C-alpha cells in the first residue's frame, strides 16, 4: 500500500497597475484680435486661475487630474491617472503518492504553480479593470466643473479682446460689464 503526501506550493505576484484616461477638445475663441494677441490673453487668464507654463502650453494638476491647454491652438487635454501597487500571494497543495518519482513531483508542483499564476493574473486583471473604471469616473466628474470654468475663461478672454479692439477703433465713452452674466456694453465715439 502506498502512502500519500502533500507538497505546498507558494506563488506571489508584485506589480504596479497604472490606469489613464483622457479627453481632448478645442476652446471656441472668436478671432477678435490677431491670433498671437488672443493667445496672450488666454495665457494670462489661465495663469490667473493657477495654470503653470510648461513649454508652449499651460497646465494644472490636482488630485490625479492634469489639464493642459495650448494657448496658440486653444486645444485642451484633460488626463486622469491612477496607480496601485499590488502584492498578491497564493498557496496551493499537490497530493502525491510516495512511490512517485521526482519527475512526477516536479510536474505536480509546476501544475499547481501554473494554476496559482492563472488565479493571480485573473485577480490582477479584475483589479486593473476596477482602477480603470475609477479613473474614467474621476475624469467624468471633473469635466462638468471644468467645462464651466473654461466657459468663464473664454468669456473673460473675449471681453478683454473686445475692450482692446474697441480702444483701437475709437474712444471709449462708456463701458458696463457684468462679470456674473458675462454681459459687456461698450459705447464708442469713432
Q: Which SSEs are present, and which pair or pack?
A:
Layout: E1 4-26, H1 35-48, E2 52-54, E3 57-62, E4 65-70, E5 75-97, H2 102-169, E6 171-178, E7 183-189
Antiparallel strand pairs: 1-5, 2-3, 3-4, 4-5, 6-7
Question: Can you put this structure into words, describing what you see?
Answer:
With 190 residues, the protein is of the alpha+beta class. The chain has one domain (4-155). The chain has helices spanning 35-48, 102-169, and strands spanning 4-26, 52-54, 57-62, 65-70, 75-97, 171-178, 183-189. Strands 1-5-4-3-2 form a 5-stranded antiparallel sheet. The chain has a two-stranded antiparallel ribbon with strand order 6-7. A hairpin with a 4-residue loop joins strand 4 (65-70) and strand 5. The chain starts with a strand and ends with a strand. The model has no long low-confidence stretch (mean pLDDT 87).
User: Quick one: biggest sheet?
Assistant: 5 strands, antiparallel
Mean pLDDT value:
87
Strand arrangement in the largest pleated sheet: 1-5-4-3-2
Strand content: 35-45%
Shape: rod-shaped
Total of helices: 2
| Cα-based radius of gyration, to the nearest Å | 31 Å
Distance between the termini: 113 Å
Q: Helix-strand pattern, N to C?
A: EHEEEEHEE
The domain tally reads 1
Number of strands: 7
Structural class label: alpha+beta
Helix content: 40-55%
**Unreliable stretches:** none
Amino acid at each position: 500500500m502506498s502512502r500519500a503526501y502533500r507538497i505546498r506550493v507558494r506563488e506571489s505576484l508584485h506589480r504596479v497597475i497604472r490606469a489613464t484616461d483622457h479627453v481632448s477638445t478645442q476652446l471656441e475663441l472668436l478671432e477678435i484680435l490677431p491670433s498671437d494677441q488672443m493667445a496672450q490673453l488666454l495665457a494670462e487668464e489661465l495663469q490667473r486661475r493657477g495654470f503653470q507654463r510648461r513649454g508652449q502650453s499651460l497646465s494644472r494638476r490636482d488630485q490625479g487630474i492634469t489639464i493642459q491647454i495650448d494657448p496658440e491652438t486653444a486645444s485642451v487635454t484633460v488626463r486622469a491617472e491612477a496607480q496601485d501597487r499590488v502584492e498578491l500571494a497564493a498557496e496551493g497543495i499537490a497530493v502525491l503518492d510516495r512511490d512517485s518519482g521526482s519527475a512526477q513531483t516536479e510536474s505536480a508542483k509546476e501544475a499547481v504553480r501554473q494554476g496559482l499564476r492563472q488565479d493571480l493574473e485573473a485577480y490582477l486583471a479584475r483589479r486593473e479593470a476596477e482602477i480603470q473604471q475609477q479613473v474614467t469616473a474621476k475624469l467624468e466628474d471633473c469635466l462638468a466643473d471644468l467645462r464651466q470654468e473654461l466657459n468663464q475663461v473664454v468669456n473673460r478672454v473675449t471681453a478683454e479682446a473686445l475692450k482692446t479692439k474697441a480702444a483701437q477703433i475709437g474712444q471709449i465713452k462708456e463701458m458696463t460689464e457684468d462679470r456674473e452674466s458675462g454681459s459687456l456694453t461698450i459705447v464708442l465715439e469713432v
